[in-house]
From TrEMBL, chain A:
Stated name of the protein: Interleukin-7 receptor subunit alpha isoform X1
Cellular localization per UniProt: Membrane
Keyword Transmembrane helix: yes
Membrane topology: Single-pass membrane protein
Composition skew (Polar residues), residue ranges: 382-394
Alphabetically ordered keywords of this record: Membrane, Receptor, Signal, Transmembrane, Transmembrane helix
Source organism of this protein record: Huso huso
Main localization (coarse): membrane
Highest taxon in the source lineage: Eukaryota
Signal peptide per UniProt: 1-18
Region (Disordered): 365-399
From TrEMBL, chain B:
Location(s), subcellular: Secreted
Pfam families in the cross-refs: IL7 (PF01415)
UniProt organism field: Huso huso (Beluga)
Cited InterPro entries: IL-7, IL7_sf
Superkingdom of the organism of origin: Eukaryota
Gene3D superfamilies: 1.20.1250.50
Keyword Membrane applies: no
Signal peptide: none
Alphabetically ordered keywords of this record: Cytokine, Disulfide bond, Glycoprotein, Growth factor, Secreted, Signal
Protein name: Interleukin-7
Keyword Magnesium listed: no
PANTHER family: INTERLEUKIN-7 (PTHR48492:SF1)
Amino acid sequence: MKPLILTILLMVQPSVFGQSGSGDDETMDEAIEPMECLSHLSRQLEQSLVCNFNRDISYNITVQVCGEYVNFKGCMNMTMDDHDNRYVLNTKEFLAVEKYEIHTFTTSNRYISQVIDLRLIIKPMAPYNVNASYSEKHHASYITFDTPYSALPSKDYLTEKLVHSVAFRIQNNGQWEYQNITYQPLKIEGKYLKPDFIYEVKSPIPNGDYFKGYWSDWSNVATFKTPAVHKNPDKSVLLYTLSPAILILLLIIFAIAFVRWKENIVSCLWPSIPNPKNTLEQMYKKQGRGHNASFNPETFGDHNIHMVNGMEEKVIGECLLFPSPADPPDTQERSQASLHLKNELPNVVVSQAQDQWLLSERCNEDGADPQATSDIEGFSPGITTSGSNPSNNEPARDSVCALNPQVGFQVGQATRRDEAYVTMSNFYKTQ
Amino acid sequence: MKNVFFRYVFGLYPLGLVLLPIVYPCGNKTTTSIIMDYRNLIGSPISEVHEIISRKINQTCLENHTHTCEQNKEIGSIHQMVCSIQRRRLHFTEFQPQLTILLKTIQKSLGCDCELGRSAVHKRDTTQNPRRRKQIQKRLCKLKNLIANIQSCFQKFHSKEVT
């Protein structure tokens, strides 16, 4: 049993060294280093695999890519590019889901193999047709570009999976600034722009969950000029036209105001009132005109007192002229009371003028003072004057023939007050 | 006693291990990788192939219930349908590249291979014979049904695993 096992082990041992690719006379100069590969996968565009050696290879080597392809299972040879270190394989047979082995053979039949996953080493195709334009209306620049994947009739592996990067700077000057975009067009606000910007676009694969890889090459460069000063032209024009007009208008207004100040404006705003107190009285009393008539004897306010016949006139005049001696205080009180009442009631009409007129008529019959007549001629029956002028009353007072100084005195007393009324109650006499 | 022991240890279990790939032809792919492959490599192409086939059909196709998507066995059902397409040699030159790539991608994604037996013979579909044209239409209908079933089975599997 034991010899059998030992024999088997000895037979198995040499087969261990078969696969790793290390030879008997391995030296540093002929060591084959692994290659760095980049792939491109697409359903509609070309598919490729490009591999580079890290250093110059002085001897002929053969590179094969082995695995399962669309229509067969086997190996395909890579072709050497113009650059000595670069090997390329362009074919539609690549399966994106498959892992491939790269076998690198030297002339001395040594080889190394490495397994690659094409999905993880994708280098996309570069964008093109970069166009940058500045919009005066929006005060922003818009950058658009095309990618080979956006123009395809149907969805490809890399469609909508790329994040693009835009680099811009002042032409031939300054540091590049970068901006990642996913949607077009890229809008850059005017405040971030400087004159003479140039733009370049490249597209990387995002470090996504399925496809991974490297940045693409940069696109062509696009330039445009941005205006140096960004101002809103509409607003500035409006400002420049309106402000002088407003200033001129204000100047005209001030000039007119200054010239016509005293003449018109002051008199309009602050009119001179010769006797403000009397004016206010008149304004106040005028409100009572045409108000309710009251038949209360003490507050009789009938405006329309018509001319009475001579007999009545005479009777009234005699009463006025010859009151009883005992009465004066009462009449005075009554008159004062009535006056007081008159003073209180705004509707009370001054009938003093009419009484004076009656008295004067009486006096005229006896040959009265013509002066009084002339003064009283101004009064017509039915007219009430509130607060009859004391000046008018005084000559009338004097012309009451000095017959009844008390009456005159009473009337005079009444007239001295601001609101003096003689009412019918004065004539009322209890027998 | 010792014979029975050694028979079980060195007999049945190795036999079972050898036979396991035959019983489960779909091997070592995880659910996550299958779903990612479906999202990125299979989802769009299968819709496009279905659309291309539908445009070529001039008649109404009868629904085929031979191949159904079994519950909890979606991967196996998809594999059977793919192999059925390969076996029936349902190939059409017009959309051959897309169909082949699609079928191969599905096979590799599931980790399953189809035992074809003999190599598929590509039959020409361009002919003026009316009987031949009717046959072509019938085959197109079968293919369309299978593609539609594969698509719906993938969607079932995807929605089941994602939720």
